Amino acid sequence: MAETAFVIEPGRQDIVMIRHFDAPPDVVFRVVTDPELVPRWWGPHVLATRVDRMEVRPGGRWRFVNIDAHGREYGFCGVYHDVVAPERFVRTWAFEGMPGEVALATVTLAAAGGGTRYTAQSVHQSVEARDAVVRGDAARGGTEAMDRLAVLLADRRPPCDAGIAE
To answer: pTM for this one?
Structure first.
């Protein structure tokens, strides 16, 4: 399985997460923007995810809720600012447990190596806000989500056509 790479440089306000998927950009875009599929990959594997709202269009709102084994809920929300299928989307990202801390997240999908290079950059309001997210184990949660997304994308590949006469 491919590795998820993170760029988290001291003194900067951003976190960059990079992953290669064995699926074309249009398929990756459809999966990551489908509210029916998001619960199957978004967030750490120990948490369930509910999509309360997902309007993938400029000005559209989104809200996802992670639910732990004890039923505690952790909400995340924001607004889409730019959507260019299947190349990118830009949205704000806020954890409801940290009111006032909003990041701007840009997800870019580029054809690469027969698949897709997924790059997510989150720019936080300050270095301190970014560092709090890093301390909250964002890399582990992001890696688990990307691993789950890779499995989901592998399940969505077209069947092999080997042995079919033309």
So the answer is: 0.90
- Residue 50 tokens read as 């509910």
Residue 145 CB: number of other CB atoms within 10 A? 20
Kindly give the parts of the chain with pLDDT less than 50.
159-166
Question: Using an 8 Å Cβ cutoff, are 53 and 40 in contact?
Answer: no
Domains by residue range for the chain, with CATH: 5-155 (3.30.530.20)
Angle at the Cα of 49 from the Cα atoms of 148 and 82, rounded to 5 degrees: 80
Q: Are 49 and 70 contacting, i.e. CB atoms less than 8 angstroms apart?
A: no
**Residue-wise pLDDT tens digits, 81-113:** 999 999 999 999 999 988 889 999 999 999 999
β-strands 48-54, 73-84 pairing: unpaired
Residue type, 120: A
